Amino acid sequence: MRNKFISWFFLMISLVVFSQKDSLKIGDRYADDQIYLSVSFSQFDNQPSSIKKSNFSYALSGGFIKDIILNRQGTISLAAGVGIGYDYFNHELKVDEINNNTVFSNGNAISENVFKAYNLEFPLEFRWRTSTAKEYNFWRVYSGVKFIYNLKNTFQYVDADATVFKYSNVTDYNKLQYGLTLSAGYDEFNINIFYGLSPIFKNGTMNGEAVETKILKFGLIFYFL
After folding, report:
1. What is the DSSP letter of 207?
2. Is the residue at 135 inside a domain?
């Protein structure tokens, strides 16, 4: 079901973008509606003090974003969009779900400990660029905020006895999150940073210490007309 939804989503935004490009007329005022795709390295930030490391982790996302022009030349705008995202974390924070309670502990003694999430994304951006209605290769700086609604989360680890523990949609997971975004670069190739302002868990504690884990992502984002 999830694969059908993803395929339908990208088909619809592709049709919208191609229709926009075919109807664009040369003039002073224009919109820069786009498909975006991003790939990022990811880290958990602000972990409990006993959690010392996070292994290779990544994130993928894509969607469609709509321009709202603020000046005649089209170089300054606001933009709003919708997309989907996938997060994969290989980490040290051990998460169990026991009697509808989320329990946190240190997972440095287990061989595998991963977290996966499927999300809806809603980016809002303030945009500056050097483009014109005739020029598609240009410099850009886009900053803003991204709201994230979690569709599914899964925490899985393998203990010393090779027993697999897997928990989906844990109680303390914060399904609605948000963070700051910044992308800058030239043409389709741009650096991209996301820093979560909201913790990914609600009311979590570990050895008396609040679990206020946040997400940091840095990588590349590609924009296509």
Report:
1. T
2. yes
Q: Alpha helix locations (H) across 156-204?
A: none
Number of domains in the chain: 1
| pLDDT tens digit sequence for 152-202 | 999 999 987 888 999 999 999 999 999 999 999 988 789 999 999 999 999
Note the pLDDT tens digit of each residue in 84-109.
999 999 988 989 999 888 999 888 77
Q: Domain of 104?
A: 2-23+30-219
- Report helix, strand or coil for 21: helix
Phi, psi of 16, deg, nearest 5: -65, -45
**The whole model's pTM is what?**
0.82
| Residue among 67, 17, 61, 11 nearest 39 (CA) | 61
Q: Is 57 helix (H, G, I), strand (E, B) or coil?
A: coil
In-domain check, residue 212: yes
Residue whose C-alpha is closest to residue 181's, from 211, 130, 219: 219
Residue 224 within a domain: no
Residue 34 lies in a domain: yes
